[in-house]
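seq:
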Amino acid sequence: MENSTPNMPQPIDYGLTYKETFNGLYIGGERKFRDELPDCGFTKFTYKQGEWVPFWSARAIPVWLVIYIIGFAIIAVFNSIPGGWTWDNPRAYALFFMGMVFPGAFLLGIVCGVDHDIREGHARRNPSDSLLAFRRALSEYKLTLVAVRRKRAYWEALGGHQFEIETAKVLGLHRFNPTLTGGPADGGIDIEVYRDGVRGVVQCKAHAAPIGPQAIRDLFGVIHHSKAGFGIVASRAGFTAGAVEFAKGKPIFLIDVLDLVAMADGKDIFDSFFTHLAEI
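struct:
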């Protein structure tokens, strides 16, 4: 049985750009980023990584041109040149274009920077619908992640017998009708279950290390010896790759703490198996 997590927000492409996400996660007044980005999930956003802040913009250039021409005209009024500021004086053209190279470029940088700050501030104050959707999903993700961690910590702290009791309770939520066997003579069966008329056997492993293939082989033998229809191994620490490989193609379900958390939250991770049995 593959690991199943509770119904958590799935990675969605909200069509966000790098700058939109930057605006949504950066706190300008405190000059730091919000600690909201999860360490997993949300991997399919259309970020534009490494995007440079543009030195020019379509709106900044006409503003710069108007300011530059007005400023140059004021300078021309109060400063004379040989030959005067006339249309047929080549010195006037030379000074005009020389002014565009150095002071004009400097002025363009200032105008573009101001324009950039204005646009960024507007984006922060007026987030796009996609950015609002991102924030809502991110908030939901964080709340769910915290809840899952707390529930997982609860299961991982259980002792052997209590782990069996809680596993039986969770199985009971999904029509398994569990019965705890217990005792040294349980024949390798911690819980006996019935679902849809099919008998199953359950072993609970509250070990600190992942369960290896030998334990799964033992359960497979118990299934045949007890003439059960399927077997379940519930492990507090998960399973090794060898255990997972051995269980493939067999009526054996490997469930870990995340599966138990999902089942406790109402997710029936066995539904497809028993639906398939009913169709046979």
